[in-house]
């Protein structure tokens, strides 16, 4: 393999992914993700879209170190990803990501101490800093059951950011929220990214969310998931602009075309 570009934080090289014990996977090598090749630049927002079952979350788990490739290799800062670590933090769709028996602040302090990211004396200060960043400092002493879904996601995001990871991995983090809360958190995530410069890798089913949040959007095909295209969306981040609408339309057409027969694709082109 060639030397990794110094601006790349992640490089995936001919990656095949599947579940189950390694020995069984070698005997039955059918893949959920097949021959994935892509790179992610440090500080970008990299969004993954594709049909259900194409391996988006599977790929995210491999980036997190929870799943080893059947073939190929994923590099983080030039080193093969072999296991999870605090340099990669997750935010999931599920609201119940926090420990119910700890306060919001206590959840973050515990994560910092478990990961040994800061001395104990500094853990509270850092926790409060990131709670303020995501606008839930007022709920620092509350327990998760006392929070709304949106506030729980903000708290989970604060916990992930407090680790100051190299990469923030997000799997449909706003998918279960109402439209108003979802839009607000999308706006806030963009502002947080500008302030922190964290590298963001996110899975979503929403084309609009992908365009609004992403600087690059990777389109995957149906199972087995293959990387079909990586689209630069950095100039299309404002809802309602011609650039936003054009990129959204293009991504939608690419997703639809992958699932249609050649004859159906011709009919779609004629309509357009």
Description:
There is one protein chain. The chain is an alpha/beta fold. It has two domains: 34-87 and 166-264, Rossmann fold (3-Layer(aba) Sandwich), CATH 3.40.50.300; 96-164, no CATH class. Helix content is 40%, strand content 21%. It contains nine helices and ten strands. The chain has a six-stranded mixed beta sheet, with helices on both faces. Strands 2-1-4-5 form a four-stranded antiparallel beta sheet, covered by helices on one side. Helix 3 (104-115) packs across helix 4 and helix 4 (120-133) packs across helix 5 (149-162). The longest helix has 18 residues, at 179-196. The radius of gyration is 19 Å and the shape is globular. The model is unreliable at 268-272 (pLDDT under 50). GO terms for molecular function: ATP binding; ATP hydrolysis activity. Keywords: ATP-binding, Nucleotide-binding, Transport. This is ABC transporter ATP-binding protein. Residues 10-247 form the ABC transporter domain.
- CATH fold descriptor of the largest domain: Rossmann fold
Note the run of SSEs as H and E.
EHEEHEEEHHHEHEHEEHH
Mean pLDDT rating: 86
Structural class determined from secondary elements: alpha/beta
Give the proportion of residues in helices: 25-40%
Name given to the CATH architecture of the largest domain: 3-Layer(aba) Sandwich
CATH 4th-level superfamily of the largest domain:
P-loop containing nucleotide triphosphate hydrolases
The fraction of residues in strands falls at 15-25%
Strand order of the largest sheet: 6-7-8-3-9-10
Rounded to the nearest angstrom, the distance between the terminal CA atoms is 42 Å
Question: Biggest sheet, in brief?
Answer: 6 strands, mixed
Summed up, the helix count is: 9
Cα shape: globular
């Amino acid at each position: 393999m060639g030397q990794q570009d110094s601006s790349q934080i992640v490089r995936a090289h001919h990656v095949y992914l599947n579940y189950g014990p390694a020995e069984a996977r070698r005997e039955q090598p059918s893949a959920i993700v097949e021959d994935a090749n892509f790179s992610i630049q440090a500080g970008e927002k990299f969004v993954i879209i594709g049909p259900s079952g194409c391996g988006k979350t599977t790929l995210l788990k491999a980036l997190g170190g929870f799943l080893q490739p059947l073939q190929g290799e994923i590099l983080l800062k030039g080193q093969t990803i072999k296991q999870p670590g605090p340099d990669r933090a997750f935010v999931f769709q599920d609201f119940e990501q926090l420990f119910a028996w700890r306060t919001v602040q206590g959840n973050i302090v515990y994560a910092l101490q478990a990961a040994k990211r800061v001395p104990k004396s500094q853990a509270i200060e850092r926790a409060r800093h990131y709670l303020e960043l995501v606008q839930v400092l007022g709920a620092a002493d509350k327990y998760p059951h006392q929070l709304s879904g949106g506030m729980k996601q903000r708290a989970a995001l604060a916990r992930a950011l407090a680790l100051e990871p190299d990469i923030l991995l997000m799997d449909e983090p706003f998918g279960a929220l109402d439209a108003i809360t979802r839009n607000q958190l999308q706006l806030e995530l963009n502002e947080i990214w500008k302030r922190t410069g964290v590298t963001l890798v996110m899975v979503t089913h929403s084309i609009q969310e992908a365009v609004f949040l992403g600087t690059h959007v990777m389109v995957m095909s149906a199972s087995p998931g293959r990387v079909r295209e990586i689209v630069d969306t950095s100039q299309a981040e404002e809802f309602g602009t011609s650039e936003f609408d054009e990129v959204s339309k293009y991504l939608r057409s690419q997703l639809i075309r992958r699932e249609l027969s050649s004859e159906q694709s011709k009919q779609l082109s004629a309509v357009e």
